[in-house]
Write a structure and sequence with these properties.
Radius of gyration: 21 Å
Largest sheet: none
Order of helices and strands: HHHHHHHHHHHHHH
Number of helices: 14
Family: Belongs to the inorganic phosphate transporter (PiT) (TC 2.A.20) family.
Subcellular location: Membrane
Protein name: Phosphate transporter
Membrane topology: Multi-pass membrane protein
Helix content: over 70%
Distance between the termini: 76 Å
Shape: globular
Number of domains: 1
Strand content: under 5%
GO molecular function: phosphate transmembrane transporter activity
Amino acid sequence: MSTTLFVVVVVVITALVFDFTNGFHDSSNAMATSVATGAFTPKRAVLVAAVLNVIGALLSTEVAKTISHGMFNDALIEAAPAMVFAGLAGAILWNLATWLFGLPSSSSHALFGGLIGAVIMAAGIQGVHWGTVISKIILPALIAPCVAGTASALATWIAYRIARPTDRFSQKIFRNGQRISASMVALAHGTSDGQKTMGVITLVLIAAGYQEAGTGPHWWVIGAAGLAIGLGTYSGGWRIMRTMGKGLVHIDPPQGFASETTSTVAILASSHLGFALSTTHICTGSILGTGVGRGTKVSWGTFGRMGIAWLVTLPCAAVVGAVTSLIAVKGGVLGTIAVIVLLLVGAWLIIRQAGHNRVDFSNVNDADSVVVAKQADPELGRAPKTLSEVKNELVVGTTAAAQASPQKESI
């Protein structure tokens, strides 16, 4: 096996691993509000999201083309395709670190940051097309959450004015509507994030001479990327789902429906235009907007921590990508192997730490914060619930809310 082919194989495998982490990191974007309101049971939510992520990834390739043809100087990358692997390694480590803390940071920005840092380290600043980065990544990242939040706030305000959401029948209608709107978010997520890995694999195939410049992703790239993000989504990403569903705003079915509908429209529009947008930013802005629109309490402290994570994701991933690029590109095959070892060790340490206070489908709604320290969380110091117990709790909670709603109206 030639050195170039070895690097290409490593990049393809690493890209699919990143796609898997993207799936479980962003599964909360589609289903956190539906799980929080009981519209979906946790297990059913991730299954539906996983299937629709795969379907969505097969529908479009516009975002993939932005990454494979627009962000970097292909001629410079051809000299060192290992830099793409280094960028992916940085993105994976950042995704795992933010997952550990339950922070819904952007997997997209982790990917872009890792790639940008790796390219700058190996090929210089001229290797990045900064016009594309600013117009299709930075500016949309600043504008999209504000637009989604404003639209979500308006939709929530309208819902609570004309549909009597506290009425038992209205609650049922909105909860059923959430099943459709959350499914649409999952489909839209696949059309956006599912394509980013396709773009990275296509980028390295072109750089290594295995694909003609200017062509789109091969069918096997599309299928493999869609399957990887689907499997990642099915694994749950429960730590981030807790933050999105419980830690930011208390969500009722009308709010969940409003936020999911606005998120779907924003994500599909950005995918159609080829914007490599963060679905996390859009969905978080929509959830925040529901709290503002309803006038309920918003945990601004949690949002502040999320905001900081948003700001530092791209530069921090770029630093990690630059370090791994220095090792992989300068060290040749041995350097690439060294980065693989570092990636495996780092991933193992993070997953081991998360195991001290595990969040899964049975306890995702039991608290509104994620515990990272080794000491036991008193709220979670018990045996995990079975799937039937979780379903029963959701049914009881829904019935109690419906019985209480007429009393609230009469006060």
